[in-house]
Design a protein that fits this description.
This protein is mostly helical. The protein contains 7 helices and 5 strands. The protein has a 3-stranded antiparallel β-sheet with strand order 1-2-5, covered by helices on one side.
């Protein structure tokens, strides 16, 4: 069994970053289900930070933030925390808007690290009825078309226009197109 003092700085930092990422993942879970394990991860971070400090090595601020003693905010502290949150939220919203715009321009999902911006082209609705009506008006003498209309006519006297278009290789116009969208999330 290796002692912590035997680990090279780089390996300790890798373990520290892995622990920080693991801790970040717990924010999506019910804390009552993971309380013991979260404490274990925080204790691991505490030991690694203490060893890096002992060596005089750099320690990421995010690790120090995790270990900071909780403070009572009070009314003034709470107000400041809420204003800080508002400012950061506005900054993050602005960054997200840039990501969304860029992904819309690219036209496909992008993933960098654990951030994914999912592109959706929007839902489309085809005008099969319109395509069949237009074709019927332009080709009233087409017997194959008339036969397909009869074959795909439902008992309730409706025509399966999509089937007719598919068999006749008629391209139906897009009559409704949803707006493209992008969703940004951490994986």
């Amino acid at each position: 069994m290796r002692l912590i003092k035997d680990f090279p700085d780089e390996e300790l930092r890798d373990d520290l970053y892995a622990s920080l990422m693991e801790l970040k993942g717990f924010s999506k879970l019910d804390p009552t289900d993971t309380k013991g394990y979260v404490k274990h991860v925080v204790d691991t971070i505490r030991v690694i930070v203490a060893e890096l400090d002992r060596r005089g090595a750099d320690v990421p601020q995010s690790a120090r933030d995790v270990l900071a003693e909780p403070q009572e905010l009070g009314v003034a502290g709470l107000a400041q925390a809420m204003l800080d949150w508002r400012q950061k939220k506005m900054e993050l919203d602005a960054i997200e808007a840039k990501i969304v715009t860029a992904v819309l321009d690219i036209g496909k999902t992008q993933t960098v690290g654990d951030v994914r911006a999912t592109y959706s082209a929007g839902r489309r609705t085809f005008g099969y009825q319109q395509a069949v009506d237009d074709y019927s008006a332009a080709h009233p003498e087409d017997l194959e078309f008339s036969t397909l209309i009869a074959v795909h006519t439902r008992v309730e006297v409706s025509v399966d226009c999509k089937a007719v278009c598919d068999e006749m290789k008629i391209v139906a116009p897009v009559i409704k197109q949803g707006e493209p969208s992008v969703t940004v999330k951490l994986l």
